[in-house]
Write a structure and sequence with these properties.
Structural class: alpha/beta
Number of strands: 8
Number of domains: 3
Radius of gyration: 26 Å
Length: about 450
Amino acid sequence: MLYYLVTFMAITAIKTFFNKISAENVENISKDTPIVFAANHPNTMMDPIIIGYTCRKKLYFFAKSTLFNNPISGWFLKRMQLVPVYRKQDNPTLMHKNESTFTKGFEILSKGNAFLIFPEGISTGDRILSEIKTGAARIGLGAECENNWNLGVKIIPVGLNYSRAIKFRSDVSARFGKPILLSEYRRLYEEDETEAVYQVTNQIETALSKLTINLQDLEMQEIVEALETIYKQELAVDLGMEIKDKAEDFSITKGLINAVEWYFENDPDRVEKFKEMLSKYLRILKRLHIKDEFLDPTTESINLWERFKALSYLIVLFPLYLYGLINNVIPYKFPRWYTKHFVKYKSEIAPWKMVSGTAIFLVYYPIEIIIVAMLTGSFLWTLLYALSLVPSGNFVLKYLQRVRDYRQHLRFLSIFYRKRPLIYELIKQRQEIIDFLNNCKTEYMEAVNIPLPKHS
């Protein structure tokens, strides 16, 4: 009962926190087969909830043993089907306890169940895939061996990709890879157990590398993020692809990363030149407080009628915005304040935003409802008020986004009329960057034998 209640609350929380949660290749998940889900781990507590929600299976979870140190949390986590993993970096003297962890893993799989493990063994929050540990392979192969290779255990790699991992109302996708059937390694395992474990682990690492947006070096992150801002839409149009399609968006980003890595290795001087161009352009954008999209010629311009409609929307619906703001501003602001002051690690920001936000809303809303009930003495008005809280809060978010967009637009127009030469210079710089990147694209695609778009 506790498991299902907490699962329901967790899924409700992530569906509120994220704007869109998508899953790809779920057909790779068989219903009646023991499965080891092996995933990357960019976002600590968020990751298991996302995978549990998207895979639609009841899961056991392997988690670091330090989470179980407190007796109360240890009791709770075990009721939630978490199994402790003893890591060398936490306490090397406790590594022998992993024998019981492996035994539990064998038991889960022998009963036809599934568990989730994060083989990196660490969560950093960066677009880096850490070294893959051997635990998933050892447990899966060990379970098959103990059951005379009759279980049909599969390891399914899972790539988690967050659009902006720490941002409220961002997107996340779970990409399920092709299953690795462990019975195919029987002969090798019986001849050389270590080599079999190595090969399966290597296969997991290769799959995760293909399923995730990851970089070889964090030095590349700033460049890739800039390319996503300035060039991604242009590249998508050139390749006849659509960013709104998650699979195509993923392919474009992977292609950008592959190209950046190629240039870092083969033409570092070109990378340095791009950094200089980019730094100069972004520095002026930051000084003027305007977005790149306003200088993008593909961005639809807003005519006078559209501006009038936008302003009318903001004026007419301001009372509704004010109502939602009054009822939601404290619980909405609290998670950001809490994580800013008490959370140190990047990979823990989003989970603690979600946890603290859920906690304060669960306390704050009942208090508001009780106050309204006492003031009105009416069940009907209290019920209507209670039902309005969540929708009005969601409306506030949409309204604020409209305000930000409208304010940015007015700011750009103001700067354009006051500092027109500077805007023209920015447009020129942006076009020089695009031309530079187009030349790099052609050179890269020819170098790695990727067919060029017909119109290039």
